[in-house]
Amino acid sequence: MTKDRRTAAGNCTVPLPFRPGPGQRYLAFFAATILLPALLSNCLTLSGFPFLRSVKVKSEPEQAVVEVFRDGEKISEITTPGRIYVLKTEELTLKISREGYRPRTVKVPFVDSTTRTVFAFSAGMLCFLIPFAVDYNTGVLQVPEKYEYEIQLSRAGSPVEADPEESDQKDQKEADEPSGPPSAGSGSISLRFDNGILWIQ
Question: Would you give per-residue pLDDT tens digits along the chain (201 residues)?
């Protein structure tokens, strides 16, 4: 409550400046140092923490060169063992090479992250879900399908070893395809035209 100070000229009063008590000062300090940062943290987006997503690449043998491509454009290069930091959500292509060895090409796809989605939605509720919308549109709610890739390189001139994943996909594709035309004894139909009559056998 302000205190009034009367002047000698009459009843004119001059309000004294407000001075908060000790309890009010502590409350203001708490709001400025703890409460306000806690509220503002809910308005942060995962876009501000791009280095939380990374892919580690190993190779056998080590010291292989890994070229990172996005949409056909080279964006980075590391040496194994090394780590690639993902700043933008788009499928990456890794080309691994080393002198005296056959080069390898590996795809790095991205998948939706349930943990990131729940966190971004919960943290952005106090800011009308604007941070969540930003995270959704920038693609940071997705993460690499695998966080570590270990590439086996074959020496140049040695027999080519099939990639286990590619072999499984090829076997599945061959299993889904028909083996060939049906044989004569497996329910096939034959046509015969005799004396103006069409016979079906």
Answer: 444 555 445 555 555 555 555 556 656 555 555 544 544 444 555 554 554 678 999 999 999 999 999 888 999 999 999 998 877 777 889 999 999 999 999 999 888 777 767 766 666 566 656 655 655 555 567 778 888 999 999 988 766 555 555 555 555 555 555 555 545 444 556 667 666 666 666
- The answer to pTM > 0.70 is no
Among the listed residues 77, 114, 113, the one whose alpha carbon sits nearest the alpha carbon of residue 92 = 77
Task: Answer left, alpha or beta for residue 196, where phi above 0 means left and psi between -120 and 50 means alpha.
Answer: left
144, burial (CB in 10 Å: exposed 0-12, middle 13-18, buried 19+): buried
Q: Residue 120: which residues within 8 A CB-CB, separation 6 or more?
A: 45, 46, 131, 132, 135, 136, 141
Give, for 37, the enclosing helix (H) or strand (E). Answer: helix 36-41
Q: CA 173 to CA 162: how far, in whole Å?
A: 16
Maximum separation of any 2 CA atoms in the chain, in Å: 140
